[in-house]
């Protein structure tokens, strides 16, 4: 299998690259989602970006390549060329870290195509807490800082001190350095269990291993790691709907509001029961956000996944057809849309 990184490539060109009959690439990594909050000046330009921009990119990506096409979609939120998605898509507050990680796990595992999960993403790793700015040593970061600083010097009066604080803020948010730090295996061990060396690592361990490490999440039912495992199994069970099915955004959620919802029509391979899936995401830290559940004639909505519940999965899917639901900060909900009772559905991943 060949996977190509396609930067600065039009959608029409991407389709050509992954068209099976051309035998060029099997999958393509597009960077629209990774660059959604880049400014016109590049990665470290703050620019102006909104939640609506994020929704628009998701819809454009999944409607643009799959609809009526033989080409296949790849999905990723992290790679060695990005910052950590929990930090990029969140608000930087530790109390919301796990909720953001689970929200992004729901988004990742309920979209079609081939899913790529980068090391550390499955435990909700955050951006590296590197400071001062000189500790960022990726050549891409160093060159970008130098270029911006040189440009500002050329545009300023001699002897004037150049303010680079805005660039440094963006480096701490978006630099590639963040996904190149070591996995914290066990808090309290030397180098958080990554290495027994007494010398320096390639990059210092992040300072938050007391909150985020593999060992503490392995057997914890409510951990980010456990949730990722369950969501991947959920994706496997309903692959015909999720992996191979179509994508329909709920129009009422495409505005600037915090809620983004979409429907994955399809049929479960477990039997003849028609199982469509409704996903509802609160992409912000806003609390008590109301969302009017769509009405599906002749069908019921059964809530199966709620990231605010212990473990995320509801043992007995409950009928919540009609009315309002209220979502908390970065909360995700997944519903079955079924013509039979929720009791007839397999709900334990």
Key attributes of the depicted protein:
alpha+beta, six-stranded antiparallel sheet, two-stranded parallel sheet, 16% strand, disordered C terminus
Please explain how this structure is put together.
The protein is built from 9 helices and 12 strands. With 349 residues, the protein is an alpha+beta fold. Strands 5-6-7-12-9-10 form a 6-stranded antiparallel sheet, with helices on one face. The two termini are 29 Å apart. Mean pLDDT is 88; it is low at 341-347.
Give the helix/strand layout.
Elements: E1 3-6, H1 11-18, E2 27-30, H2 51-64, E3 74-75, H3 85-88, H4 97-109, E4 114-115, H5 139-154, H6 165-174, H7 214-218, H8 224-237, H9 239-242, E5 248-249, E6 259-264, E7 276-282, E8 289-292, E9 300-306, E10 313-319, E11 324-327, E12 332-338
Parallel strand pairs: 1-2, 3-4
Antiparallel strand pairs: 5-6, 6-7, 7-12, 8-11, 9-10, 9-12
Helix pairs in contact: 4-8
